Amino acid sequence: MAKRFFTMIKELTQRPYRKRIRVVHKVPIDQEWDKPVSFARIKEELSKSSDIIFRDFILRGKEDIPCSLGMVDGLVDKDLLDAYILRVIMVEAVDDPVFQEMTLKNVNDRLLDLFTPANEVKKIGRLGEAIDGMLSGDAVLFIKESQEALVISARGWSDRGVGVPQNESSIRGPKEGFNETLRTNTSLLRRKIKHPSLRLLSMKIGDLSKTDVVIAYVETIANMDVVGEVLKRLSRIRTDAVISGDMLEELIEDHPYSPFPQISNTERPDIVTAELLEGRVAIMVDGTPSALIVPVTLPMFMQVNDDYYQRAMIVIIVRTIRYWGAFIALLAPSLYIAVTTFHQELLPTSMLLSLAASREAVPFSALGEALLMLLALEILQEGGLRLPKPIGQTIGIVGALIIGEAAVGAGLISPIMVIVIGFTAVSSYTIPYYDLAIAIRLIRLPLMVLAGTMGFFGLAIGLYLCIIHLLGLRSFGTPYLSPIAPLRIRAFLQDTFVRAPWWASRKIPDLVDVHDTKSGRKK
C-alpha cells in the first residue's frame, strides 16, 4: 500500500504540465500604425483631446522648415523642454553655421546631433511609434513635410515616491517598497544587484492601455526555459487593457480553477532580489506597486522577509508556530465537528460531560453551529476590510465579541464553539500571504461538511483529495510541493520548514532548476 502511494506521488510530480493562456481580444489593432509618420494624421487622431498639445514653429536654416512639438500635458517635464529643447532650437542654435545649413533632407540628422548632449533622443519612422511616444510621456518633434520624427525623452509626471510597504511590514529589514512608477521600481532592483547579468526586458501589453511590463531575471542563474515560457505567455496575451499586475497574474497562471496561488506577489524590493538570486523571474507592471514572482512553491507562501533578518534558531521556532497556525486554521472546526458528532469515545469522560452540558440547549448540530459562526466571522472580516482602518478594527473585534456573547446568551451557539471558531480565526492570521489564507478559508468549508457527514473518514477523504490536487499543480513547470514532492534533500533542509544558518548556506536552494553562476555560487 505504501509503495503504491509513493508511486502515485512520483507519477503526479513528474506529469508534464499544460501550458495555458487565456486570450482576450475585443478591439482590433489599428493597421495604420505601421505606416510612415504623418503629422496631419497624428494631429487628426489626437487633437480632439484637451491635454494633447502641439506647439508649432519654424526652423530657419538654409530654408524655412515648419515643425511642431507634440506632448501630453501632465506627462512631460515642461522645464526640461524649455531649457534643453526649445531654447536650443530657437535661441542658441540660430548663429550655429551647421544649423544654418539645415535643409528638409538633413534636418532630422542635424537635430539628432544637436540634442544628443541634452537627453535621450531617437529617430523613428512609424506612425505607431510616434503615437506611443507621445502617450507614454515623451515629446515628439515632427517635421511637417517629413515622414520621420524625433522622440525626446522628457517624462516628468509626479509619483508617490519610495515609501514603507503597507502590507509587508518588517521589524529589522529595509523599509522601502515599490511604488506605481515602473522605472523607480527597476532602479530599486539595480541598486541591490549591481551585476551586468541582471536582465530587464521590456514589452507592452494591451491594445488600448499599452501597459509597460518588465521581466527581470539574472541570466547566469535563472533557468532560461522558464524565462522563455514567461515571455511566451506574456506575448500571447491579446486584451484591451492590463490595469494591474493582478490581472496579468490571472492571465498567465497554469491552473486558473485552483484555489491555491501559483504566482507570488510582493511589494518589497529585497524579497524580489532574493528570489532573483534563487533563479526565479520577476514581472513588474507599470502602475502596480508590487512585483510578480514565478515559479513558486507552496512552502514559499509560509515564509516572510523577517525570516532572513533573524537568527536561524529563532526562525525555526517562528516557522513552526506558523505551520501549526495554518494546520489549526484548516482543520480545527472539522476535527471538533467530527469528534462531537461521530467519535465521542476519543474524549475523556469529564470533557464529554462538559461538552454535552454546554450543548444541551443548542438547537443546531455541531456542523450547523460551525457554519453559522463562520458565516458571521466572514461577514465581519469582509465588512472590516472595506471600512476605514480604525473603524474596521473596531468592527472586527467588538462586533465579534458582542455577536458571540449574544449568541451564547440566546442559546443559539455553545461556548465551546465560540472558542473553536475564535481560535481558528486567530490562527489564520499566522499565514503570511493573504492569497493562501483565502485558499485555506475556502477549503475549510468542504472539509467541515465531510467531517459533519462522515466523521474522520470524510475528513480523510477531503485531505486525500487536497493532497492529490497539490501534487498535480505546477507553477511554470515547477512542482507546487517542491522540495517535498519531489523530494530535494538540500533545499528541504536549507530553507523549507527550517532555515539553515547563513554560514551553512553557501549554495543556492535547490527549489528550481538553475544555471551555474560565474561568481562562485553553485547549483
TrEMBL record:
GO terms under biological process: spore germination
One GO cellular component term noted in the UniProt record for this chain: membrane
InterPro entries assigned to the protein according to its UniProt record, in alphabetical order: Spore_Ger (IPR004995), UPF0353/GerABKA_families (IPR050768)
Keywords linked to the UniProt accession: Membrane, Transmembrane, Transmembrane helix
Matches recorded under Pfam families: GerA
Transmembrane segments: 321-342, 392-410, 416-435, 447-471
Protein family: Belongs to the GerABKA family.
Stored PANTHER family: LEUCINE ZIPPER PROTEIN 4, SPORE GERMINATION PROTEIN
Name listed for the protein in its UniProt record: GerA spore germination protein
Species whose genome carries this gene: Desulfitobacterium hafniense (strain DSM 10664 / DCB-2)
